Amino acid sequence: MNTRELQDAIMEKKKENDVCILAHAYQSQDIWDVADYIGDSYGLSVQASKAPQKTIIMSGVRFMAETVKLLSPDKKVLLANSLAGCPMAAQMDRDDVLKLREEYPDAAIVAYINTTSDLKRAVDVVVTSSSAVKILKQIPNKQIVFIPDCNLGSWCEEQLPDKEFIFVNGGCPTHMRMIERDVKLAKAAHPNAEILVHPEVLEEVRKHADYIGSTTGIMKHAEESSNKEFIIGTEHSIVQHLQFKCPDKVFYPLSKECVCHNMAATTLMDIYRAVTGAGGEEIQLSEQVRKEALKPIEKMVEMG
Ligand code: 13P
Ligand code: SF4
Predict the structure, then answer these.
(1) Are the CB atoms for 22 and 59 separated by under 8 Å?
(2) C-alpha 41 to ligand 1 mean position (Å)
(3) C-alpha 226 to ligand 2 mean position (Å)
(4) Residue 151 C-alpha to ligand 1 middle, in angstroms?
(5) Atom of ligand 1 nearest to the CA of 174
(6) 59, 102, 116, 249: which sits with the fewest CB atoms below 10 Å from its CB?
(7) Dihedral sign for Cα atoms in the order 38, 39, 41, 44
(8) Dist. CA 65–CA 108, nearest whole Å
(9) What is the mean pLDDT of the chain?
(10) What class does CATH assign to 94-171?
(11) Which pTM value belongs to this model?
């Protein structure tokens, strides 16, 4: 089967088996073409609870499929490729959060959505890159323990000088591969280009950016900007997607090292197998985890 035939077969089976395909923006173009919804982590969470289909396939990483299951407990949720995890979500567990609670009894504990469901049971609220600042502004506590991404956290800290942030070492290994030298080289090569970055990048990169935002935010900014050239400081796939969306503009990667192998793990064939019932991993969460982890997620949707 070639790509086109595989895509046609997926579209047919999707209808026949009442399946909705959600794809994160970092998925490849051939997967985008068969998805019902494409977005950033926040958009995918909101969309998950709106989908009328009985089965949802997540083409993205594990924490995203878990979030879908938390929000749609009666649906069958499949992670298209069970090897697709987010290394940042493995950096901290629930016991780490419980220790932080003891250490900082007056603080609100805020977790990035890139964490496990088990960890989410112990936090006050969950945030995504596109909702973090808005949600943090509404938290009454002065002290905020922000986990696990210190870079996203420090970007929020810059915008909320009245809050006192506490960070624990953590971050996205993919985005942290980009360093200030990459920006200087890219800028020298393309002096007219706007620099658009994800808040998971290091501060030394972020300080050179013209725009900082989520994956969806970056794409929207590039589409709406009157500029013709852009340097993209996020996962490499976004460079290709933007090139498709805006053929009259030119996009350069800030660094070609910014590739997330977990996001790239899912293939069109994985989607085909999941949609035909021959593959994918069904997400199972215990009732206790589901009930407790749902609370900070619901708060995120309410406040975000
Ligand atoms: P977004 O919420 O911006 O899609 O970020 C998710 C992610 O994993 C980025 O690395
Ligand atoms: Fe996780 Fe970073 Fe990959 Fe996003 S890009 S899924 S944060 S490792």
Answers:
(1) yes
(2) 6
(3) 29
(4) 13
(5) 10
(6) 102
(7) negative
(8) 26
(9) 97
(10) alpha beta
(11) 0.95
